[in-house]
Structure to design on (105 residues):
C-alpha cells in the first residue's frame, strides 16, 4: 500500500530535528560583547537569554561546552559583595567558521 509508505515517510520527515546551536551561541557572545569588560554573571546571562527549567539548563550546558571548546569564553569566579558567583568572559569574538569544520569524524 503506497499510501501507508507515504504516511511513514511523512512521519519520519516531520520528526527529523535539526539542532542548530549557532544562533544561540552567537547570542551569548553578542551579549557578552556588549558589556564593559566582556564579563557577566552566568545566572544573569542565562535568565536574560531565556535558559529556564531543565530543557534550558541542558541547552545552556551544551552551548557553554561548545563555546569553551572553541576557545571563545572562559568561566571564572568573582566576588560580588560577600558572595562568590560564577561568571563568563568573552575571550574572542564569535566566528561561525570556528564551528563549521568537522574535527576527526
Amino acid at each position: 500500500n503506497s499510501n501507508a509508505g507515504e504516511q511513514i515517510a511523512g512521519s519520519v520527515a516531520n520528526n527529523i530535528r535539526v539542532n542548530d546551536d549557532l544562533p544561540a551561541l552567537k547570542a551569548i557572545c553578542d551579549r557578552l560583547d556588549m558589556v564593559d569588560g566582556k564579563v557577566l554573571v552566568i545566572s544573569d546571562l542565562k535568565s536574560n537569554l531565556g535558559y529556564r527549567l531543565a530543557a534550558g539548563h541542558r541547552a545552556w550546558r551544551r552551548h557553554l561546552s561548545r563555546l569553551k571548546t572553541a576557545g571563545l569564553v572562559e568561566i571564572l569566579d568573582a566576588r560580588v559583595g560577600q558572595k562568590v558567583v560564577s561568571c563568563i568572559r568573552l575571550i574572542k569574538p564569535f566566528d561561525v567558521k570556528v564551528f563549521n569544520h568537522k574535527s576527526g569524524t
